[in-house]
Design brief:
The protein is an alpha/beta fold and about 280 residues long. Helix content is about 40%, strand content about 15%. The protein has a four-stranded parallel sheet, sandwiched between helices. The chain has a four-stranded parallel sheet with strand order 3-2-4-5. The model has no long low-confidence stretch (mean pLDDT about 95). Bound molecules: iron/sulfur cluster. Iron/sulfur cluster binds next to helix 1, helix 4 and helix 8.
């Protein structure tokens, strides 16, 4: 039986930097309470590791006592939270990924140039919420948005997206938008880390007979990996697990070629443990 770990493996640069910043915040403020607003990155094992270093999670900024430390997540945060943090005299560490920041800058430049922005993303995801909070002229793409979009307001809006979407889905959405708004300007902003992971699945050998995706159920880029696997290799069994304990070895029985893919926020030792469980079975 051949077992292979697909690359990229382990943290993307954005996740790695966010974790380093959280530890820096802890170290630089030994006498303060340190909170991450929401999940720093979408992996529960990472969140638990941070808690062990006394870096807590706050689900609401108002739950953080005045004057303590707040860390904003790698996904970005709603604009109004900056003002609230200032009023509460919080010490701010912002771990937003440069790729997300770059999208925000593109949105800002376009709105300042009097354009509308159509944003393709998941309602409720922190990155999408952060980008949508920037300006009223940023509109979330939904199935019926194009019926209600007034082309006379702007016939060449910017079309931009959450960094962790599926390269298969976004292609068809772009085509649909261009049919309705032919002069729309498409900025495909799926980040390199997300794209490369999906491309590795798309180009799998024909003899692969099991795809295992390792990552957290909260992680957008991880869930997209499973979707890409299911859409591109419907004849191959595929599943998503958080860690080795969730892997029922009966599914590996009689398999000849197993591949392990992983999300951008999945710790490397969790991926290695899945690999070792299979090869040592
Ligand atoms: S998945 Fe992409 S956008 Fe998200 S933190 Fe990593 S590099 Fe940044």
């Amino acid at each position: 039986m051949k077992v292979e770990i697909l690359k990229p493996k382990a943290y993307c640069a954005g996740v790695s930097n966010a974790i380093k910043l959280a530890y820096k915040a802890r170290e630089e403020n030994p006498n303060k309470k340190v909170y991450v607003l929401g999940m720093l990155v979408h992996n529960n094992f990472v969140v638990e590791e941070l808690k062990k270093k006394d870096i807590q999670v706050a689900l609401d900024i108002n739950a953080i006592p005045n004057g303590e430390v707040i860390i904003f997540s790698a996904h970005g945060h709603k604009r109004e939270l900056d003002e609230i943090a200032k009023q509460k005299n919080l010490i701010i560490y912002d771990s937003v990924c440069p790729k997300v920041l770059n999208n925000m800058k593109l949105i800002e430049d376009n709105v300042k140039a009097d354009h509308y922005v159509i944003y393709i993303g998941q309602k409720g995801h922190p990155e999408a919420e952060a980008c949508l909070s920037l300006y009223n002229k940023v509109i979330l793409y939904t199935n019926n948005i194009l019926n209600n979009y007034h082309i006379e307001n702007d016939d060449s809006p910017l079309v931009i997206n959450q960094t962790t979407l599926s390269i298969l889905d976004i292609k068809s959405i772009h085509e649909e938008i261009l049919r309705a708004i032919p002069k729309a300007r498409i900025a495909n902003e799926i980040c390199g880390s997300t794209r490369l992971r999906q491309e590795a699945i798309l180009s799998l050998d024909k003899d692969v007979d099991l795809i295992i995706v390792v990552g957290d159920n909260n992680s957008s880029n991880t869930k997209r990996l499973l979707e890409v696997a299911e859409a591109s290799h419907p004849e191959v069994a595929s599943l998503m697990i958080a860690d080795a304990s969730e892997l029922d070895m009966r599914i590996c029985a009689n398999k000849n070629h197993i591949v392990i893919s992983s999300g951008a926020s999945t710790p490397e030792d969790i991926i290695d443990a899945v690999y070792n469980k299979i090869v040592n079975y």
